[in-house]
């Protein structure tokens, strides 16, 4: 499956992205193209697994650390009042891209009662995603 997967293509650089936040040998972190709020990031394994049922224990342990670091950096970068962490597995649960991913979603008091699963959301204007990604990078610990 990996060869036709949009997230695999982003990881390999076959689709250019100016919204990369972090990568190491196991994990890749970048901004969602249709954010619930600006700063909405995705944490994914570099190796292609479709969903959480398939990912090895050692790898999900490493992804968990990246999820925590991303949550803290996003919160600081956009001065969020809260953070949702979401993971959709299979279409009936809202999974659209079949490469395991965790959503790190900044939330604000003014958001009210929004559905974070609903499709979708905000759009970055030219250059905005890059600057948000840079700001999140600058808060990475
Ligand atoms: P899900 O509905 O859980 O499968 O979420 C898919 C996520 O991938 C959504 O946040 C989309 O905005 C995001 N997404 C889809 N295509 C891209 C892309 N080319 N670059 C960045 N994010 C993407
Ligand atoms: Zn993939």
Topology:
Layout: H1 6-12, E1 20-23, E2 27-31, E3 41-45, H2 57-78, E4 82-86, E5 102-107, H3 128-138
Helix pairs in contact: 2-3
Spatial gap, N to C terminus: 33 Å
Number of helices: 3
Gross geometry: globular
Content of β-strand: 15-25%
Radius of gyration from the alpha-carbon trace, in angstroms:
14 Å
- Strand segment count: 5
Question: Major sheet: order of its strands?
Answer: 1-2-3-5-4
Largest sheet: 5 strands, antiparallel
Alpha-beta content class: alpha+beta
Can you give the helix content as a percent range?
25-40%
* Average pLDDT for all residues: 94
Please explain how this structure is put together:
The chain has three helices and five strands; from the N terminus they run H-E-E-E-H-E-E-H. With 141 residues, the protein is of the alpha+beta class. A five-stranded antiparallel β-sheet has the order 1-2-3-5-4. Helix 2 packs across helix 3. Adenosine monophosphate binds at residues 6, 32-34, 42, 88, 94-97, 120. Residues 6, 32-34, 42, 88, 94-97, 120 line the site of adenosine monophosphate.
Brief digest:
The protein is an alpha+beta fold and 141 residues long. The protein has three helices and five strands, in the order αβββαββα.
Characteristics:
alpha+beta; binds zinc ion; globular; 3 helices; binds adenosine monophosphate; 5-stranded antiparallel sheet; 141 residues; 18% strand
């Amino acid at each position: 499956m990996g060869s036709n997967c949009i997230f695999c293509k982003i990881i390999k650089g076959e689709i250019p992205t100016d919204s990369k936040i972090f990568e190491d040998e196991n994990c890749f972190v970048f901004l969602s193209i249709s954010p619930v709020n600006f700063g909405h990031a995705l944490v994914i394994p570099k190796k292609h697994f479709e969903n959480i049922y398939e990912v090895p224990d050692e790898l999900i342990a490493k992804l968990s650390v990246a999820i925590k670091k991303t949550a803290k950096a996003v919160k600081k970068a956009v001065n969020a009042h809260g953070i949702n962490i979401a993971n959709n597995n299979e279409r009936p649960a809202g999974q659209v891209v079949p490469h395991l991913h965790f959503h790190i979603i900044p939330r604000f008091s003014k958001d009210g009662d929004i559905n974070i699963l609903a499709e979708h959301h905000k759009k970055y204007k030219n250059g905005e995603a890059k600057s948000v990604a840079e700001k999140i990078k600058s808060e990475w610990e």
